[in-house]
TrEMBL record:
Annotated Pfam families: AAA_16 (PF13191), GerE (PF00196)
Cellular component, GO annotation: cytoplasm
Gene3D superfamilies recorded: P-loop containing nucleotide triphosphate hydrolases, Tetratricopeptide repeat domain, Winged helix-like DNA-binding domain superfamily/Winged helix DNA-binding domain
Molecular function per GO: adenylate cyclase activity; ATP binding; DNA binding
Positions of the HTH luxR-type domain: 872-937
Organism superkingdom: Bacteria
Name of the protein described by the UniProt record: Regulatory protein, luxR family
Species: Streptomyces misionensis
One Gene Ontology term from the biological process aspect of the record: regulation of DNA-templated transcription
Classification via SUPFAM superfamilies: C-terminal effector domain of the bipartite response regulators (SSF46894), P-loop containing nucleoside triphosphate hydrolases (SSF52540), TPR-like (SSF48452)
PROSITE patterns documented for this protein: HTH_LUXR_2
Length: 939
């Protein structure tokens, strides 16, 4: 089909059509923009046609003529059908310009009499297609859009390939798509032969979990729980078509899938992936059903489940492409996860239960046996429920809380209404396992269901706590639940302790009141001790210790010791809100970096063993922060990025991880990304009403702005931090360590008096708390204030001292920053050699953004120092110290921006200083300063 340029509507490649394909689309666009051709290929449903249409719309506008064809499997036997699609509507236009033999051959092929044409007049027909394309190209660029090349009839494919290989230098481009299963396959080579020799082949692979989640959100399925989205990604294997169909089916389904069962597969996908199922024997189909019901099917498992001819039946399925053939492994693996899910969904319920019953005795793992027993059983059965609860406990101990949650829900379903534990208790345990696994949506849904059923106060309070806990840093949204939880708790100290512990977090996150948070935590600890609930007591003490640490409260060390006393609860010891975490925070703030690293590494190892996603995100951040303090910027960046990926995947701790990753990016990665992440963290914290993390996010933004060369932006951000922390009651400067950055930025913007005030206030608290690294950083910043005031020698001495102390304390990056400030303050006297130490230290830290700053500073150095100019300045005693420094640099030929960078001040401050210099010296411009200096030298 031909579409003239006049009838084309301008269109752009919409972002929702290329989710996860940005890099691939960019490569295809670059190829098309340069006049080249593109072949998109990949498996069925992977998005080839979607991207083909989007690119075709985008690049149809520059073309004079667009020729289109889209073949189908049912029509692939019809000769020259694709050729008719491409050239049928332009035949009358190009025929007069073809030689008679070529015109006859082409018309014969396109009018249905062409089967013999390629045999009888093969050369004429080939040349006719080539001549027709050249004739169209003579009037303007031609774009050929061909979808589903694999179904092109052989005659059309041969003619298109013949022409494509001979169109060099002609403005004819091909944009094609073909289904392939592997880049090295023969079919891939065959499709390339239908394209020009320089065609760019772009293979489209599966989408990642976050990309599938984004795609589902774009298509109106964003309300699905994260655990369900994860199941969709696993079942679809990242195939966008399959994922969207599964998402649509789940959105439209009135009931979610039962625990432990595969996702429901819509009829449209069943027909697609099970088209060859009817070719199997009945027994082979039953064998595959047993395999689809098993978690990790093997031939041995199938034999144990009563499938005596499993080898032959699996071989038959492999020949049909239903199973993957892997001779080096005993596993029975489906060619695509969706085949397994569709096969299971297609089977009648009775056959499914029979498959599970067989596997309940065949499986060697007790967890698998219990799961299959549950899925083979209908109705309440206390024995089955007990076995499932035991299996859930085993999964929990193995570090598989997600599996434990599924088994717990199955146990609840098979527990009689009057059973002990009750069905609601087992549901709540499953919800707590889901929280540990990072499946907060599932946990919240379970707790809300319990609240509609439960009348026992302990069960209701426990459910309220789960709903509140899953709100995370959006606790303002669950404010209305606290009075109801308190009412259900009555006067039971154990239940009241749970509620008051959460009220402490509410005071901190929603109100930003550290004092109220500390008091609520202390009260919760007292109530828990009275009710003999050691777990809640330890959590409350740890929370109290953390608030006291951040406040700079003198009781913090004593509270930490109380939280670490025996007996301990192992569930609290490794928890991110437990005593171990509080101790880690104390160590980091107290400059004990080696011990802090060992502590958080041990905690991270334990939570990974237990499968606690939220705690893993938290401790990854903690380890990244420790490495950053130590100046291991590359290692810190890797850890921070890992934390952010996990946070976004689970929806837990995204704001905190974005903030920490911003700090790591600004220190050792990409400054632009650091700014983006910091702004994202600020936006999220403001949206959540989270005052605590808002101050941290603004601190990260201020640091990124400083590294990016925006001291005015740093001042704006960190002034907000100063105001926020004053209101929060945070006095320990080691909490955010932003004071030195604010002071440095204030010096650069020409406000040394305010910088000194920031330093003096922070120093008072740092001296009280013994924060040695903070004191050294404050000295580094104060040296810049002194330099701005003209006390250069004192500033140099203070910087040397700060650098030495930071190095001994193990703060590699701060040590390097002191060396850099020292080099810049020394100016031109030692020349480029002054920067050698800073360069060495930044390289050791892998602090790439800071190394770029050193390179920029070196670029401003002149070949030789202007000693004569300094002599001239001695005579200009009418100028103040700052004015003399600025004038000296003008005489050396430095620009205003270079002067600002050298003296740690803003360009605006340089301009204002020069205005005063002009007035005092009775001159009008920079040129007059240079002339004045030359005149002094002449005398």
């Amino acid at each position: 089909m031909t579409v003239r340029r006049d009838f084309q509507e301008p269109a752009r490649c919409r972002s929702d059509l290329v989710i996860g394909r940005e890099e691939r689309c960019a490569a295809a666009r670059a190829q098309l923009a340069s006049g080249g051709s593109v072949l998109l290929h990949g498996s069925a449903g992977i998005g080839k046609s979607t991207i083909l249409r989007a690119l075709a719309e985008e690049y149809a506008s520059p073309a004079h003529t667009v020729l289109r064809c889209s073949a189908t499997e049912s029509e692939s036997h019809l000769p020259f059908l694709a050729l008719a699609d491409l050239l049928g509507l332009v035949l009358d236009d190009v025929s007069p310009r073809l030689p008679a033999a070529q015109r006859t051959a082409l018309e014969s092929a396109l009018t249905g009499r062409g089967e013999s044409s390629l045999q009888r007049d093969g050369l004429a027909l080939r040349l006719a297609v080539l001549s027709a394309l050249r004739a169209l190209a003579a009037r303007g660029p031609v774009l050929i859009v061909a979808d589903d090349l694999q179904w092109l009839d052989p005659a059309s494919a041969e003619l298109l390939g013949f022409a494509a290989r001979r169109l060099g230098g002609t403005p004819v481009q091909l944009l094609c798509a073909a289904r392939t299963e592997g880049q090295e396959s023969q079919e891939y080579d065959r499709h390339l032969r239908s394209c020009p020799p320089d065609t760019l082949a772009v293979r489209l692979g599966p989408l990642s979990h976050p990309q599938v989640a984004e795609l589902l959100g774009h298509r109106g399925h964003g309300g699905l729980p994260r655990s369900t989205v994860r199941d969709i990604h696993r079942t679809s294997d990242g195939n966008p078509l399959f994922a969207l169909e599964l998402g649509r089916a789940l959105t439209e389904s009135p009931t979610p899938p039962r625990p432990g069962e595969p996702l429901p597969v819509p009829t449209s996908l069943r027909a697609l992936v099970l088209s060859r199922l009817d070719m199997l024997s009945v027994e082979a189909r039953r064998t595959l059903l047993v395999a689809s019901a098993g978690a990790r099917p093997t031939l041995a498992l199938l034999h144990a489940a009563g499938r005596e001819n499993a080898e032959a039946e699996c071989a038959q399925a492999a020949e049909l492409g239903l199973l993957a053939t892997e001779s080096d492994t005993p596993a029975v693996r489906f060619a695509h996860p969706l085949i397994s899910a569709a096969l299971y969904a297609e089977a009648p319920a009775q056959e499914r239960r029979a498959a599970h019953a067989a596997l309940s005795t065949a499986a060697s793992d007790p967890i698998e046996r219990a799961r299959h027993l549950a899925l083979a059983t209908t109705g309440a059965d206390p024995e089955v429920a007990a076995r499932l609860a035991e299996a859930a406990a085993l999964a929990r101990d193995r570090g598989a809380p997600s599996v434990a949650a599924q088994l717990g829900l199955l146990a609840a379903r098979h527990t009689p209404a009057d059973g002990s534990p009750s069905p609601q208790e087992r549901r709540l345990t499953a919800a707590e396992d889901a929280i540990t696994a990072g499946e907060v949506d599932l946990a919240r849904d379970i707790a809300r269901e319990v609240l509609t059923r439960a009348s026992v106060p302990a069960e209701r309070v426990r459910a309220w706590i789960i709903v509140i806990d899953t709100a995370g840093h959006t606790m303002a949204e669950v404010d209305a639940f606290f009075p109801q939880a308190l009412a259900d708790a009555g006067d039971d100290p154990r239940l009241l302790a749970l509620v008051h512990y959460q009220l402490g977090w509410r005071a901190l996150i929603v109100e930003g009141d550290f004092t109220a948070a500390r008091d609520a935590a202390a009260h919760a600890a007292e109530l828990a001790a009275r009710g003999k609930d050691r777990r809640t007591e330890l959590l409350a003490l740890a929370f109290q210790a953390q608030t006291e640490t951040l406040m700079g409260h003198p009781e913090a060390p004593r509270t930490i010791k109380r939280a670490l006393r025996e007996p301990q609860d192992p569930r609290v010891a490794w928890h991110h809100n437990g005593a171990g975490s509080a101790r880690f925070r104390w160590l980091v703030m107290g400059d004990q970096l080696a011990e802090a690293r060992a502590t958080v590494t041990g905690l991270l190892r334990e939570v990974r063993r237990r499968g606690s996603v939220e705690s893993e995100v938290h401790f990854l951040r903690g380890l990244a922060e420790t490495e950053l303090r130590a100046g291991h910027c590359g290692r810190a960046l890797d850890l921070a990025r890992e934390s952010l990926r996990l946070a976004r995947d689970s929806g837990i701790g995204e704001t905190a991880s974005a903030m920490l990753t911003s700090l790591a990016e600004a220190s050792g990665g990409d400054v632009d990304r650091a700014l983006t992440l910091a702004r994202e963290a600020v936006e999220h914290a403001e949206g959540d009403g989270d005052q605590m993390y808002l101050s941290r996010a603004l601190g990260a933004l201020g640091y990124a702005q400083l590294v990016a060369g925006d001291p005015a932006g740093t001042v704006r951000s960190l002034r907000r931090v100063r105001t926020l922390e004053l209101g929060l009651g945070i006095t320990d400067p080691a909490r955010g360590r932003w004071q030195g950055d604010l002071a440095e930025a204030l010096v650069r913007t020409g406000e040394p008096a305010e910088a000194q005030d920031v330093i003096d206030t922070a120093r008072e608290h740092a001296l009280r708390l013994g924060r040695e690294s903070v004191l050294a950083v404050l000295d580094r910043s104060e040296a810049l204030v002194r330099a701005a005031q003209g006390a250069t020698e004192a500033a140099l001495a203070q910087l040397r001292s700060a650098q030495d102390r930071l190095g001994k304390l193990g703060y590699g990056l701060e040590e390097a920053r002191a060396a850099f400030a020292l080099a810049r303050l020394r100016g031109r006297r030692p020349g480029a050699a002054a920067y050698d130490e800073a360069t060495r230290l930044f390289r050791r830290c892998r602090a790439l953004p800071w190394l770029r700053q050193v390179e920029a500073a070196l670029a401003t150095l002149d070949a030789e120092p202007a000693r004569a100019v300094r002599g001239t300045l001695d005579a200009l005693d009418v100028l103040a110290a700052m004015e003399r420094q600025v004038a000296a640099l003008v005489m050396e030929g430095a620009t205003n921006r270079e002067i600002a960078a050298r003296l740690f001040i803003s360009v605006k401050t340089v301009e204002a200083t020069l205005t005063r210099v002009y007035r005092k010296l009775g001159i009008r411009s920079r040129v007059d300063i240079v002339r004045l200096a030359a005149g002094r030298r002449a005398h």
